[in-house]
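TICKET: design request
STATUS: open
ATTACHED STRUCTURE:
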């Protein structure tokens, strides 16, 4: 699913109005009806006090139009117009007149207005600011937002939480609506998925308001949301007349004294995602743990007992994952650099491999094109430097990816895959995966997909999706706190089955 910028959404509105030969207020009416239908289907006429806080732009117009529909169906409403400017949109004014025609007189709030009492049992509809917010809200408006947040009421935001800009971090963290639910028109917003801004969105849902399908399909976007429909076409079915050699020989390089478990997790994940053969290269101290822990894997060892000093591989691998538990000893750094120079295939680099690159940036030129870097936030900072907000982080990561011809995964609640000059936002995963070894599992999975012949971008997207899905399945069995990295590996096969399940089966399961 595409993620549009604010400007692209405005263009979609204009294109739809022109092509469908409708007026702009008719499009606003569609949005209001969808909002009302969503609320009415859940409230079913329940006697609850509804506060609608409306701005004086088009987002406020949506709220004013919604108020009309709620009143016509017998709901108890209180309409508060946040009068933050003398400039009003035409469609806001039109819907305000329609509201007044029904003898509904909103309260116009200014800096001097007393804040209305909101009960925890009330419902708040937030329609103060929309996607066009481009400046810091006045403090008195921010105080209204803070008042809403303190009310403990259920807060439904129209399209986007008020006070949250589309292209930067918040000006004031306390002056952004903390939405219980966001109803986003037609498409999701990038801010729903970034650590700095996603905290204001508890849940979100798309409302189809009939924006023109041609525009949506043909418009190119820099961001894309990755779910099952996007991932399923990437899957490569297995052939009947195939053997282990058909699915590649993956090499996992890493480990040092006390950190052999990282390689074990990566190797196990590599096998579990489908690599035909897996060889782990570790220091001597890792031989027995790996041979006993993963009998399906082959093991090669360095001459040194506690860290790697020379990576000597007597076969040609189809994919390489390196860095987990590797350490940063001088001899290890030299061995890592020598391996990069020898590689003519993309390499998956994680953990200490990334730390070595950050301390030795001259090695970046030796990374094979299409290689995949999998940093967590601190590792990313060491690579690209500090950033002011999440948007600058994405800009700097994209520039780094283009310059070094590599794919960068920004691991987190919604892991971002930065490559091919685009950014892909993953939808699977959960807080239970914030546990030791989870990243090692991801590296092993992506390496295993590369070994099977998936191109680097598809291996990254599919690997991240399956990794998160396996974690979601694991959490459903043991809960957030008890999920371990090995539990993610255990559910990789079930994640594949979930991905490949026929749609009809999904429907039947929902009914059950």
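STATUS: resolved
RESOLUTION: sequence designed for all positions
ATTACHED SEQUENCE:
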């Amino acid at each position: 699913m595409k993620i549009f910028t604010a400007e692209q959404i405005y263009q979609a509105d204009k294109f739809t109005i022109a092509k469908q030969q409708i007026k702009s207020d008719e499009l606003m009416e569609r949005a209001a009806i969808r909002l009302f239908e969503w609320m009415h289907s859940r409230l079913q006429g329940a006697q609850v006090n509804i506060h609608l806080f409306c701005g004086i732009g088009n987002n406020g117009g949506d709220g004013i139009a919604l108020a009309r529909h709620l009143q016509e169906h017998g709901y108890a409403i209180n309409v508060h117009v946040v009068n933050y400017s003398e400039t009003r949109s035409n469609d806001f004014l039109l819907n305000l007149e329609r509201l007044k025609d029904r003898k509904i007189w909103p309260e116009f709030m200014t800096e001097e207005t007393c804040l209305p009492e909101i009960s925890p049992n009330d419902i708040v509809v937030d329609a103060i600011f929309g996607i066009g917010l481009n400046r810091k809200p006045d403090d008195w408006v921010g105080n209204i937002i803070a008042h809403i947040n303190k009310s403990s009421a259920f807060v439904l935001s129209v399209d986007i939480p008020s006070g949250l800009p589309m292209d930067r971090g918040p000006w004031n963290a306390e002056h952004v609506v903390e939405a219980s639910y966001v109803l986003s028109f037609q498409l999701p917003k990038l801010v729903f998925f970034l650590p700095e801004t996603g905290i204001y969105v508890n849940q979100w849902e798309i409302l189809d308001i009939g924006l023109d399908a041609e525009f949506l399909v043909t418009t190119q976007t820099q961001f894309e949301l990755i779910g099952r429909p996007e991932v399923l076409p990437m899957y490569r079915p297995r052939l009947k007349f195939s053997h282990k050699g058909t699915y590649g020989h993956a090499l996992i390089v890493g480990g040092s004294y006390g950190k052999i478990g990282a390689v074990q997790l990566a190797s196990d994940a590599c096998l579990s995602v489908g690599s035909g053969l897996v060889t782990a290269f570790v220091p001597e101290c890792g031989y027995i743990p790996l041979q006993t822990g993963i009998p399906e894997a082959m093991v090669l060892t360095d001459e040194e007992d506690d860290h790697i000093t020379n990576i000597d591989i007597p076969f040609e691998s189809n994919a390489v994952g390196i860095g987990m538990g590797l350490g940063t000893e001088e001899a290890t750094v030299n061995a890592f650099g020598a391996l990069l120079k020898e590689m003519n295939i993309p390499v998956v680099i994680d953990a200490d491999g990334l730390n070595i690159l950050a301390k030795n940036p001259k090695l970046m030129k030796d990374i094979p094109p299409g290689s995949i870097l999998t940093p967590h936030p601190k590792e990313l900072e060491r690579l690209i430097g500090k950033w002011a907000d999440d948007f600058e982080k994405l800009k700097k990561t994209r520039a780094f990816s283009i310059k070094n011809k590599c794919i960068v995964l920004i691991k987190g609640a919604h892991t971002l895959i930065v490559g091919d000059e685009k950014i892909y936002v993953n939808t699977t995963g959960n807080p239970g995966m914030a546990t030791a070894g989870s990243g090692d599992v991801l590296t092993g999975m992506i390496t295993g997909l590369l070994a099977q012949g998936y191109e680097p971008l598809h291996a990254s997207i599919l690997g991240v999706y399956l990794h998160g899905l396996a974690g979601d399945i694991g959490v459903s069995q043991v809960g957030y706190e008890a999920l371990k990295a090995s539990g993610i590996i255990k559910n990789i096969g079930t994640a594949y089955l979930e991905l490949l399940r026929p749609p009809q089966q999904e429907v039947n399961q929902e009914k059950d």
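CLOSING REMARK: Confidence is low (pLDDT under 50) at residues 506-512. The two ends are 28 Å apart (CA to CA).
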